[in-house]
């Protein structure tokens, strides 16, 4: 569902650099009580045209991107997913803590077997201690290239934002578009050991910007009042790439990251890694009538690729070993964990996004080059580190995070590592039995 604010006078923000976005308005929620919200996701094939190319893609309810989930902190959310396509499917609710609902997290072959053709699974979860912007996406292979959508969590009734209430709220989802079959793209990369071929276009809310071929009319114009403050809810649903986001002649005030409020700070440019969400306040310039400003998002890339894998004859770079598989580590309940992640940039010059399922963590340190265990810990921020569920490890650099393993659920990092947290001793420290409709393999 798309809409636009059409007051006067207006600013018009035209996305000209890489992308196009559409405006989704949040519906008002009338009930003051904590309620159960029901959604139905029908996974269907849909013909979609971008860049003058029509292809059949997987969608939820025929929409690309998919429908938004809207709730308040404390609400129970029940999503019935029905698979009408030949592909096996599962849905991950990216960033939801899943306290006592680990069976609803969604990673295929980890917390559940995928939903097979003609089957149904009901995801049942409660939003505890979170408010802000998250998102959902498919969690089988690269099906998330088209199966994704926003999760908007409002504060509890009569609980205000820790900042002045914005005049309007606008979800903006960064994504990608392939003319090719994305499953063929990732399968080729897995066979050769090289990085996957790049997408044809970057998108916002499923639409590319006007600088791409055959996309001149696919530019979003956001009409807003001068001198008003808007909350932009940014979601990076792109598969692998960090993006820089900016609006010409305006600054942004960051107020929330991964559904956690932060100490507000201003910036002209924001970098957002795949899987991250960030809410920013945009105060439009006053006393400007019928003016246009550019809103742009660009790829962040620190070097050339490892090799050109544009043909099926591509071979991995010399002196590299390519392997498939997942390593599993078991953690005792309530353990305090510190992890330092080192990027080697052997197979690519991009930053690597890593996401912790069922948990938030504190980013206590980061840097470029190799981590020095003797010197770098002294520089850790143990006073007010940012709290996130996804972090980008810089190319050739490192990130240190800390968390407490107090949720008996799996924790998966990227594609190659999974941790399992054991049950605690008390009843509320144990993972409940699986639901009766948990999909079978």
TrEMBL record:
Name the Gene3D superfamilies on file.
Cupredoxins - blue copper proteins (2.60.40.420)
What EC number(s) are associated with this protein in UniProt?
1.10.3.2
Q: Where in the cell is it found?
A: Secreted, Extracellular space, Apoplast
Signal peptide feature range: 1-32
> Where is it mostly found?
secreted
The kind of enzyme this is, by top-level EC class, is: oxidoreductase
Q: Which UniProt keywords apply?
A: Apoplast, Copper, Lignin degradation, Metal-binding, Oxidoreductase, Repeat, Secreted, Signal
Record's catalysed reaction(s): 4 hydroquinone + O2 = 4 benzosemiquinone + 2 H2O
One Gene Ontology term, aspect cellular component:
apoplast
Superkingdom field: Eukaryota
Query: What is one GO biological process annotated to this record?
Result: lignin catabolic process
Is the Oxidoreductase keyword given for this protein?
Answer: yes
UniProt cross-references to InterPro entries, sorted A to Z? Cu-oxidase-like_N, Cu-oxidase_2nd, Cu-oxidase_fam, Cupredoxin, CuRO_1_LCC, CuRO_2_LCC
Q: Give the transmembrane ranges.
A: none
| Cofactor(s) recorded in Swiss-Prot or TrEMBL | Cu cation
The Plastocyanin-like domain covers which part of the protein? 44-156, 169-314
| One Pfam match | Cu-oxidase_3
Molecular function (GO) terms listed? copper ion binding; hydroquinone:oxygen oxidoreductase activity
Family membership: Belongs to the multicopper oxidase family.
Q: What is this protein called?
A: laccase
- Species the sequence originates in: Actinidia rufa
